[in-house]
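Notebook entry, structure prediction.
Reason for the run: the old model in the group folder had no record of what sequence produced it. Starting over properly, with the input documented here first.
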Amino acid sequence: MMRMALIATLLLAGCGLDNRQPTAQHGPLERATIVGSAETPDPVLARVRELEKQGVVQDVVVLESFPVQIRLLAPKAVIDELNRMPREGALR
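New structure, fully documented this time:
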């Protein structure tokens, strides 16, 4: 019985170990199209890829255009952050 309790405790403790960093950018997800920069490499696209790896943005689709256009699902705070990034040759 004691062994079973120990195993259950270890399993429950291990459930939270997914190696993801907690983010402060939570909230309801909104769909947006973000215009990238004419720079190479594109800092806006690089930031989107970082956020995608962290699980902050979802459903990322990069459209073939110049500058690149990025469709995604993200919290409003993240969309605002991406829109505030400086750009060269932007189509705002």
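Summary: The longest strand covers residues 29-35.
The old model has been moved to the deprecated folder.
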